Amino acid sequence: MKNTDMKMHVRGRSLFIDDIPTPANLLHAVLFTSPVAKGTIKRLDVAAARKAKNVAAVFTHLDVPGKNQIGHIIEDQPFLAEDELMYIGQPIALVVAETRRAARAACKLIELEVEPGEPVFDPREAYRRGLIHGKKRIQVSGDTEQAFKECRHVIEGSTASGPQEHYYFETHRALALPVEDDTLKVIASSQSPGAYHHHIAEILDIPQHKIELEIRRMGGAFGGKESTAVWVVAPAFAARLLDRPVKLILDRNDDIATSGKRHAYVFDYKIGLDAEGHILAYEVDFYQQAGGCADISLPVLGRSFLHSTSAYNIPNVKITAVSCKTNVPPNNAFRGFGVPQAVFSMEAALFHAAEETGLDLEEIKFKNLLRDGDTLPYGMRLEQTDGVRCWETLDKRVDIKKKLEECEQFNREHDDRKRAAAVQPVCFGISFTQTTLNQAGCLVNIYLDGSVAVSTGAVEMGQGVYSKIALIAADALGIPNHRVRMEATNTTRVPNASPTSASTGADLNGMATQYACRELVERLKAFAITRFKHDNPRDISIQDGEVHLMSARTGYTWEELIRDAYSARVDLSCHAFYATPGVYLDPVKEKGRPYAYYAYGASLTEVEVDCLRGTYEILGIDIVHDVGKSLSPEIDRGQIEGGVIQGIGWATIEQIRYGDDGRMLTAVNSYKIPDLKFVPKRFNIHILENASNPYAVCNSKAVGEPPYIHGIGSYFAILRALRSVRKDKPAPSLPLTPEKVFMYLHG
Amino acid sequence: MKKIKLDITVNGVKHSLKVDPNLRLLDLLREELDLTGTKEGCGIGECGACTVILDGKAVNSCLILAGQCAGREIVTIEGLSDGEKLHPLQQAFLDHGAVQCGFCTPGMILSAAALLHANPAPTEDEIRVAISGNLCRCTGYTQIVEAVQAAAGKDKGDWWLQI
């Protein structure tokens, strides 16, 4: 089954937002944003801009009819700034003009006087000053203090991980169209149909049923379009006030400079092991670089918090986590949602411990992998774990020990080039940690000709969720795949949809789809028994578009069945709803069962470092990954491959710099994502055999985020190569760029 | 700004236009000719999403002024297939799952098409070099390289003659 959009994509026929034919009277919106990282607005004068040629309007917060707020979790994020400025790039005014050029030119006519404040950029410093979002979270499992006393080895250290730009190819954008009866249609590049729909209504102070939000597809998102609704809200707001269509498209560099990133973290860790390498205790402090507003930072931190022990069983754990209010644009979701940072910290502690103790790193890792019956720090007892099986399968395929020895042999023979490998296990919890979001709706319509249209709350961003849901529908209805079409995600068909994130799109919406289709099949079977003068609907089935009775073909086609069922007044439309059962997290005790299940994996990354130049090559990566019973091996392979490469990019070459004043120094020409020259030629993906999962649709497992974790192995492989040269300085922070490698070796 | 006269052939169709001298080829294609298959990814020639074929060579249409294309021939993604029949590269991208979000796909396919036009049987390394200027954020490129390899033997260059 192909990604249903693919045929249009290869011909350039799929319409992204800027490809939709331009509506008559279209206006273009551009945001005027804060030039300072912290300050107070003393004077804002937009009169000259309003009078400028071709300018339709300039709006400030005074023009907002409803609640001037887009805070995703906490209401600390004004749509248009009122007085306090919290980061460079914060929206202050919205200029709407006949052309984007005119709107940009008018921005320069806005007069702004600011009383500058003292910005803070370092998360630790923000914490020291009490500048945090929400509360400090602490989780205690066992007794670390006592356990450290019993440890043979106790190692302490600090490290840090950097931000990462999403670099979705389609930047933030939306098109808003006034329709009759004061209603509004908004076509957006957004992962959060429900939340953005709500924000637009609140800002305009109109009921949600007067707004239709549609998302056909996105040119990538990776979490970056889950929150910070400003770029969708702004054109909707202007279209409503001006009663004309309005489009907003962020330029690439504006998108990079003003949108959120993967959160940078600073970590302090302390790890204790016994003589055999069992991890007895682990303490870690997370300082999260959240940005000026809370945005979605607290849920991201929450997921770090819950994944602090990565894929390992540790009986005594103490975790503290703070979301630090720093004066950079609010950081947001990015594939992995806080898990990569937590895993990096754990792995850094283990690497450090192995070096200090002389214990074998891979032996420590394998020995401590989570197994059936182990309990995670938040009290969830594990069953059906597949982490060990992934590791053992990887070992059979690559012979880990031999591979490491080969690297050492190579290093003995070469002075200026060093090779190393690292093994990275994966254990990734699946469900929204915020229990409420684990719900999905679906609407399935069967038309008179037997064609089927499926609407869900899931949005397509290239991950193939539409294809997976269409497959589930066709399978549940017993009809060929081509009879099912996925409708664009639209709030008039499926309301209040959770974001398509946390890798749950297919799990939640697929299950709702399966429910709806099964209900329709039951209705059709109840009708079919009357036609066959049979008394038991259980003897009826639909397979390959044909009705079967007692498992025998009847020659009665799906199309005939639908036509007759319609004539007999059978309801051919069905809404269904799914809520993941049994998930919860007690926010006070920090205990519960926040995830329905876990996705596992193991990989080996091999690198070669050029010690003279500081450059390196990812020689190869071998991956074993658990996707349960795959809904689509082709889509899953693409997700694994893309996720891994994004993870490698974060760990190695993707670096963002801010100036002393908080200004983004990185632009599209200085931010390097992996290209074809960088990715490894040896890229072996092995999907774990005989894996299943009773907790998700068709026994599948989520695949969007977990593979990203494999990419972290690239950092540790490079670090291992560097340590084979010298160990007299601390390990550099992540990303381990060629510049850092050079400075480590020669600085 | 005084407009300039521009005669240009796009996907085999001759156009005689008057355009702003600072109009980018990308904007000419998207705004004036409604060929929105060509995408703008970065606007400064970093990502390759806006790749089109200009007189047989792959170019970034965001870096070229429309006026520079006077008297020249452009092929965009819309011109690659033969009616409803897909070009072998398009079919191979489908067959090998080389497409995810689709935003980089037209440019990626056109860079590969320019390569196959000039070199019908490239090595893997030649493929990697030829499309290394086209970034993709969704995939890890493996399926893309496989697709180009699969199409390599099948491209007879016929499409080039048909437009």
What does this entry look like structurally?
The complex is a heterodimer of chains A (747) and B (163). With 747 residues, chain A is α+β, with helices and mostly antiparallel strands. In chain A, helix 12 (387-398) packs across helix 13, helix 14 (465-477) packs parallel to helix 15 and helix 17 packs across helix 18. Chain A is globular, with a radius of gyration of 27 Å. The model of chain A has no long low-confidence stretch (mean pLDDT 97). With 163 residues, chain B is of the alpha+beta class. In chain B, strand 3 and strand 4 (57-60) form a beta hairpin. In chain B, helix 2 (88-95) packs across helix 5. Chain B is globular and about 50 Å long. Classes of the chains: A alpha+beta (747), B alpha+beta (163).
The spatial strand order of the largest sheet of chain A comes to 3-5-1-12-9-10-11-20
Widest β-sheet, arrangement of strands of chain B: 2-1-5-3-4
What integer value in Å does the Rg of chain B equal? 15 Å
Largest sheet of chain A: 8 strands, mixed
CATH topology category name of the largest domain in chain B? Ubiquitin-like (UB roll)
What kind of oligomer do you see?
A: heterodimer
Beta-strand proportion of chain B: 15-25%
**Name of the CATH homologous superfamily of the largest domain in chain B:** Beta-grasp domain
- Percentage of residues assigned to helices of chain B: 25-40%
Give average pLDDT of chain A, whole number: 97
| Number of H/I helices of chain B | 6
| Mean pLDDT rating of chain B | 93
Give the N-to-C terminal Cα separation of chain A. 53 Å
Q: Which radius of gyration of chain A do the C-alpha atoms yield?
A: 27 Å
CATH architecture of the largest domain in chain B: Roll
